[in-house]
From TrEMBL:
CDD domains: OAT_like. Its cofactor is pyridoxal 5'-phosphate. It comes from the Eukaryota. This is 4-aminobutyrate aminotransferase. Keywords: Aminotransferase, Pyridoxal phosphate, Transferase. Belongs to the class-III pyridoxal-phosphate-dependent aminotransferase family. It catalyses: 4-aminobutanoate + 2-oxoglutarate = succinate semialdehyde + L-glutamate. One of its GO terms (molecular function) is 4-aminobutyrate:2-oxoglutarate transaminase activity. Its EC number is 2.6.1.19. It comes from Massarina eburnea CBS 473.64.
Amino acid sequence: MASLLRSAGRVRPALARSIARPVSRVAPIALSRQYASPAAGAFFPDEPTAPTVKTQIPGPKSQAAIERLSKVFDTRSLNMMADYGQSYGNYIADLDGNVLLDVYAQIASIPVGYNNPTLQLAATSPEMASALINRPALGNFPQHDWADILETGILSVAPKGLDQVFTGQTGSDANELAYKAAFMWKRQQQRGGAHVDFTDHEISSSMTNESPGAPELSILSFTSAFHGRLFGSLSTTRSKPIHKLDIPAFDWPQAPFPSLKYPLDQFAAENAAEEQRCLEETEHLITTWRAPPAAVVVEPIQSEGGDNHASPKFFNGLRELTKKHDILFIVDEVQTGVGATGKFWAHEHWNLSSPPDMVTFSKKAQTAGYYYGNNDLRPNKPYRQFNTWMGDPARAILFRAIIQEIKRLNLVQSTAVTGNYLFDGLKQLAEHYPKEIQNLRGKGQGTFIAWDSPRRDEVLKKAKSVGVNIGGSGEKAVRLRPMLVFQQHHADLLLERLEQIFKA
């Protein structure tokens, strides 16, 4: 046995090297590329210069693959059947040789391009292999370098004032965990502090789902909000009935989110009055709802609900209300976070007087969780905020590589500049095609841009036929969610293809 162990030890370095070495079958196009250089003028200098459309989408090979998949997996929400081995940079490929400029990016979750070489290196490292095959139950058996992974990755980009993190699996999970933290914080506060133990009545009533062990508290969210599809997060989701039908829900309040008129500069007075109305109604709900809110949760831009915006003044007003009534302010940055709005975190646009209490994240981070700074948000006992994995070191390692790439290429600033350029181009298109682009919004918000279209679904379908993959939100919004490596030449191509659709 000892000789076997010694032999195993001798082969480990070779095994590690073989794991770290990229395998060409994984991504044949990407692995032949070298690092993009900012000085080269393009982050992926050898990515396609234009889309290629060879067949209808889906083409015959994709149709056959979809038919096969549909026998074992629900394909009714399928957008397109992708070939990720042939996708690169800002372009997504399918099985039929179609290559599309992708400005939807897996519902805003691809940050630095398909098959990015920096991420390839991280993904094929011995460190990643260990994290994948030895996935630790982090609450019980954290790996020895977990603090280093967090400090050099997730926490290196923590929102101002928030220096701790609880990691999770998905955006829905991140919000659920934040809600739990809010409830435990509020009950600890009501009980007199974390040092005060539970009563026998609290302990017994919790097992029958009754108060006081299962307290009558709530989370306040907003009309058209989307915070996830798990039970707690779904009770704060208000975007579409299809998400909520047949699912029992908590009796939690929803406040009105401002419905702004565009162009903003032409309706300044009306929009200010609308935001004030929404703040007043929010305060009314905070003070009168039968299950008092422990927290308010809000998206900087309501993404799934139709790309709805509000002004920094509105969000500052929310922050003041939460402080006034001693409840928590949770900012859901699952879709807006990690540079998409021209700031690393969208709430940085607000210049808040004090940081949010928690900021949830996922999507472009490729991992999930919530940031916080107040030690009182730690539960008073172990195992209260707990699950088997409590996150994933492999995904945290990937986020660290994403952060490195964002910093290396200055992608947040690039996104801010490109977003302004794209918005100006869309504004010009809207002047020529006012029926096609209505309520254009997202100025100064990076590439987080949207508009309303009376024929939205038709526009999305036609976009594929001219080589662009675009997404929608709400009932009529066309939303752009390009990657952070989207540049001005991509914007020119997008504008050109949109004009083709509008002219037709």
